Amino acid sequence: MIKGNFIDNLPKIYGIYTGGFIAFIIIMAIGEQMGMTAKAIGISFVAFTVAIYAIIGWLSRTAQASNYYVAGRSVPTVFNGMATAADWMSGASFVAMAGGIYFKGYGYMALLVGWTGGYVLVATLLAPYLRKFGCYTVPDFVGTRYGGNTARLMAVIVLTVASFTYVTAQINATGTIASVALDIPFQYAVYVGLISILLCSMLGGMRGVTWTQVAQYIVLIIAYLLPVFWISNNIGAGFFPHFMLADEVARIGELEQQFGFVKNSAADLATVPKGLAGITKAHSEVNATPWAFISLALAMMMGTASLPHVMMRFFTTPSVKAARKSVGWSVFFIFLLYSSAPMLATLSKLALIDPNLPTGIIGKSIAEVQAIDWYQNWNSANLMFVSDFNSNGTVELNEFFMAGKAVVLATPEVAGLPYVISGLVAAGGMAAAMSTADGLILAIANAISHDVYYKMIDPKAETAKRLTVARVLLVVIGFAGATIAAMEIQGILGSVIWAFDFAMSGLFWPLVLGVWWKRANKEGAVAGMVLGLLSGLFYLIWVRNGGSGFLGITQLTFGIFGSAVSLVAMVIVTLMTSEPSSAIQKMVDDARVPAGSQVISQK
Amino acid sequence: MAKNAQHWEKTKGLLIVTLALWAIFSMGIFLFGAEMNTVTGPFGYPLTYWFTCQGSLGFFVILIFWFAGRQEKIDEEFGFAERGED
């Protein structure tokens, strides 16, 4: 069926794959009609998709360093865009984002702006130049551009701190989904998730991760968009929700006025299960100060441009030109999901609170709500809760509580969609969390195997030995992440945002000035990374321990402080020390011109 | 080297324009978030709300493709473009 070169056949291969996946959904839907149990459907969805990723991982196995580290630099722009979008959109984007918008409204939507706007910085300041450099990893760029092992090692440390903070959250998310879909305890499900993740990346490295991420993007985008469109049609909100929900947004505003935001007493709130929240903020009104919004957006944008697992995706394109275009495709594919999240939040909220809709529960009697099937299901999963605080027998807006992730997980069922959609959503969430975890674990393992082991410890190592080291590290880091995830320390979203702040504190200016300021030298870069990371870390610890902070910089935006310190330190120390050698300055000149061979040649 | 310097000047010029547009749509407009939200935006959504859901996000997609196209033109002008297709 498939003849000739693999790359030329990509559209055909993924076209067949997409068709196959849709056929699978239809088979499951028929199965449901014929009496397949919800549990069997959930298991089939997760097992089927994970098995496909594992097969792709196996087919992508390689023994070449350039395949393992940068997928042979042959990934076409559009496909790299899809892979980057999957790499980027984590369990948090998929499961938690719509919930965050649902509960926090405008203030939270700074994340949508930040997590897309950051790619403008990636495209203009960094990706094309780092691609021309020809590095395998981000620390490889820092080490070569500034020279010396100290700079390289510092970059590896910042990368590890940021990526590891992020990856535990992702393994946690795969564990959560696996435990629900396969009905096994979380402590074991985390390792099931981990093994699925390693199946994609261990044999093929970046090549395996690239082609599984494309497959995962297709699953996750279908799993996100199909329910949004279906729900919108089911509750009569319009067949294309993105363009047609203005009336629904206005209606929610009306209902908010009508119900009012009644504050609950602390004693009442203490009876609500942990992690659930009520609707306390207006849906579409501006509820944050300009600085609170802008500082969060800015921190996320600079963090985006400093996260190595994203940057290294642009090392896989065939050319500098392709790297730039590929950033555009990445944001396009991210946009498809991000622009749908607020629509899902709107539909979910309206379906639950509008008394005119059959699904609305506000104003119904407590007993009636407690008798609804879906309420019982999600209540027993600890994701929904109603309580009659004022003892008037009916559910009020302030008496209804839900977990953030329930917006994505429960809305299909609330709106009366068949269970097959819930199975699909589980597969999508699994794809989102797995693809990000793969990118992150690979970024850490590659940095340690390439930059620490190969470049510092044993520069004469054979390719086979290097790749063995890389694979062993991949497994070790994966297990370390899973072990920490199994302890369930933080929520999914908090640790994701910290990762951005750590990355921007340490890496943003050393990367940007490495391209845009020829005078920047090693001493400056090391000072920038060390002082940036430490000041960010201390600020976080200070604020976490009751410190007041300053300039409205919170524990979510501490990277703004860290990166400011990093910039000042880097400029001052650079100017106090001698300018970089002419060889290094020549390197920067070469990196600024797309034509010609890569600045560093790799074996 | 003069050619390289000119190429870099033009590249920097494009960077400044792109980042200025980026700053307006990622931060600038949100200085006036509360005021803008009283205006009805595209498809009938409140304007600020629309920007956070679709407007700014979509603008970034267009901006990056526009930037990539302009930068390619600059590279070609100086004969610095890569040979071969994407």
Number of strands of chain A: 3
**What about the largest sheet of chain A?**
3 strands, antiparallel
CATH topology of the domain at 10-52 and 74-256 and 276-347 and 418-501 in chain A, which one? Answer: Sodium/glucose cotransporter
Task: Give the low-confidence spans of chain A.
Answer: none
Rg of chain B (CA only): 18 Å
Helix content of chain A: over 70%
Main beta sheet of chain B: none
Q: Regarding CATH, which class of the domain at 10-52 and 74-256 and 276-347 and 418-501 in chain A?
A: Mainly Alpha
E-strand count of chain B: 0
Beta-sheet strand percentage of chain A?
under 5%
In DSSP terms (H or I, runs of 4 or more residues), the helix count of chain A works out at 26
Enumerate how many helices of chain B there are, as a single number. 3
Helix content class of chain B: 55-70%
CATH architecture of the domain at 10-52 and 74-256 and 276-347 and 418-501 in chain A: Up-down Bundle
- Mass-distribution shape of chain A: globular
CATH superfamily (homologous) name of the domain at 10-52 and 74-256 and 276-347 and 418-501 in chain A: Sodium/glucose cotransporter
Question: What are the secondary-structure elements of chain A, in order, as H or E?
Answer: HHHHHHHHHHHHHEHHHHHHEEHHHHHHH
Shape summary of chain B: elongated
Multimeric state of these chains?
Answer: heterodimer
Largest interface (C-beta under 8 Å): A-B, 57 and 47 residues
